[in-house]
Amino acid sequence: MKNHADLHRELTTLPPEQLMAMLQAETRKPVPDDDLVLEILHILEKQEAGKPIVLTDREKAAWREYQASVIRRGNPLQPVLRTATATAASLALILLLMFAMLPQEVSAGGIFDVISWCNEMALRLFSPGKEQAPLEYEFRTEHPGLQKLHDTLVEYGYDGPAVPMWIPEAYDELSRFEVDNSSRCVTISSGFTSGSKELIISISIFDTVVPQGYYKNDPDAKELEIYGTTHYLLQNKENCTATWTEENIASCITLDCQEDVLQEILKTIYVMEAK
Amino acid sequence: MKRFTQSVCILLVMSMVLAIPAYAAGIQAAKGSSYFTMSSVYLEPISDTRFEVWFRVTATGTMDELGSSMIIVQRRASSSDEWENDRYYYPSTYTQMIDYDQITHAACVTYTGSDDYEYRAYVELYAKKGTGTAYMPEYAYF
Q1: Which end of chain B, N or C, is less surrounded by CB atoms within 10 Å?
Q2: What is the pTM of this model?
Q3: Can you give the C-alpha Rg of chain A in angstroms?
Q4: How many cross-chain Cβ pairs, A to B, lie less than 8 Å apart?
C-alpha cells in the first residue's frame, strides 16, 4: 500500500487526460477508493488553475452570435435608464407639488424649515398619542362685565382659566360686583341680569383649606369634564349651579335652570389657542 | 390654656385632613335652597383663648338682605357630653352680620373662651328677597 506522499508524487507526474481516465475508472468501482479520488481531484484542480482560458471554436462562435443580438436590441442598460429617468421625473413633480402645498411660513423658511415641518408631520402620523402644537390660554371677551371679573382675579394673583368668555346676550348688564374678604379667602362675585333673571358668577381664592358646601335638592350631581377639570352640575330647586375647583380657586355659576346653556358657558372658560 | 390649645390643634388637623380632597368637597346632600348656592362656616383661632366665628355665603341671586341672623357659640366641658349655649350674637348689635343688595357676604364675630372647654358655633344663615325669607342652619368647627 503506497503512502499518501508517494501517491501524490506519482499522480502529479501524470497528464490531466490520464488522471481523468483514472478518476472515471475508480468512480465506476463498487467501492471506490475515496482517498485516491480526492487526491486526483485535488491535483486536477491545481493543474487547471494555472492554465490560461482558451475558447474553443464553438465557444467563439457562440460569443459572436450573442454580441450581435445585443447590438440589435440596443444598449442593454437602456430600459433600466428609462425607468430610472421616469421615476426621477415623477418624484421631482411630486416634490414640486408638495412644496407648493406647504404652509407659506414653512416654505419661506428654507430647506431646514421644510425638513423640520416634515418631521413634525411624520411624528403626528405615526405617533397619534403625542401632543400637537402647545395650547395657550388667553382671555378674550366682548362682555365688559366678564372682562372686569377676569381683571380683578388677575389683580388678586390668578390669571388662569376661571371666567367664562361668553354668557348669553340677554345677560348684558353687570348689576352687581363685590369683593368679600374673609380670614382664609377672598371672594369675587358678579351678577348679570336679564329682566328679573340673574346669572351669578362667584370665584373664591383661598389661602388655606376651608370647609365649604353647595346646596342641591337632587342627591346626584352630574359630572362634566372639560380640559381635564371636573365640574359638578347641581340642581338647586329652580336654579342650576355649576361648581369646580382648580388649584386654590373654587368657582360656581348659578342661573335659572338651563343646563345646556350652563354647559356652553363652561366650555368658554377653557378656550385655548394653538401657538 | 393647655387643654384649649390641644383641642384647637387636634380640631385644626382633623379639619385640614377632612377638607383636603377639594375646597368644594362638601356638597350638601339633598338640601336644596332657592336662596343659597354656597355656604362656608368655620372657627379661626386668634390666640390661645380667642377665636373668630366666620361665615361666608353666596346666594342664588342678589338678595335684599344676606348674611347671618344669629350666631351662638357653644361649649362643652371634658366631663360632659352636652353642649351648652354660651354667647349669642345678633345683627342688631353686630351689624357686620347682614349686608344689603348683595350676592355674597362674609363676616365674623369674635369670642373669648378658656382652655377648659371645647367649642363650636351654631350659625343661622339668612337671606331675604322681596317678601320671601330663608334661614339655613350650619355648624362651625375649627
Answers
A1: N
A2: 0.60
A3: 46
A4: 150
